[in-house]
Amino acid sequence: MHDVLSIAAPVDGTVAGPSLCCYRLILGAALLWKITADHLFGMARYFDLNPKSLLRWRYEQDEMAVKLLLSPTAFKVFYAARAVAAVCLFAGVLTPLAAAVVAAWCMFEFTFDRKFNTLFLGMMCLPFVFARQADAYLSLQSLLDAPSLSAFLEPPRIPHGLKPSWPQVAVVVLMFQVYWSSTWFKAASRQFTRGDTLQKTFEQLATVHAESPDVPRDYYFPAWFTERFATAEPALAARRLRAPSLATIGVEAALPLLLIFPATWAVGAVLGLLTHIAFTSILPKRLVPFGVASVGTYLLFLPQHTFVTLIGGLT
Q1: Fewer Cβ close by (within 10 Å): the C or N end of the chain?
Q2: Which of 2, 1, 8 is nearest to 301 (CA)?
Q3: Contacts for 15 with CB less than 8 Å, ≥ 6 apart
Q4: Which DSSP helix (H) or strand (E) runs through 220?
Q5: What are the respective helix, strand and coil percentages of the chain, to the nearest 5?
Q6: Binned average pLDDT, 10 residues per bin, the chain of 315 residues
Q7: How many helices (H) and strands (E) would you count in the chain?
Q8: What is the pTM of this model?
């Protein structure tokens, strides 16, 4: 119980511990993956006017959108700035400023391409705007200062029982919200609990892939899976997917509780990893950054000394 209270009652202000420094590196890697994938899929031209992109045209027509339209030039400047900022966040260079720029970009991107995974990544950047010394471990400067690779990877020793900073606790609280709000909406949806949602998702992805087999896609399932769960008679496929749908609800409800208790943390971490691998297999382009950033937060559920012991044992 003492270890649980160490997460629930932070006393160390905004000074980042080694686990939050490690998460900075993981979040930076997730953002760089997303930025690279988005660029390969043409995001640099999303705000072009000549010719006008389909996404911009749809954005202009959307009466529900919060329109923060930029000129194509201003968009590309912001587009380049967020890439530089993501590299800086990964490297631990000007971390608060870099995190603020990336968070601002994610909020802006959400206005014209409303994917909640993008919003999630932006929210995960915000604690680094306020955290201090998030570059003390696993940063470019610590790499340059380290006498060896093992010294660079070895986390700094900290007193037993040291409690985390509030930016770290903010990430933990946000993950409770992410998993439990997802649980609530899924459990309240008859379409999801009956397996209809997964069936329709697989059916749509399989249809798009069949109609445009040569374009970049998010669908990579083998033929036997497609025949059983995507193109089979809808009611039959939905019944087959009902058990995985209900299992998803149960796992998401249990994950934060498993992770917050050190005795069950390993079980929660393995279960969460397997769950995110399953999610990512459905929409890899969109969900790889989300999965990496989500699973990375599991390190922040650990008491500080436990994290140091764990990483020290690996190095």
Answers
A1: N
A2: 8
A3: 131, 132, 133, 165
A4: none
A5: 75, 0, 25
A6: 45 83 97 93 84 78 76 91 98 97 95 89 97 93 90 81 86 96 96 95 88 72 90 94 96 97 96 95 88 97 88 71
A7: 16, 0
A8: 0.89
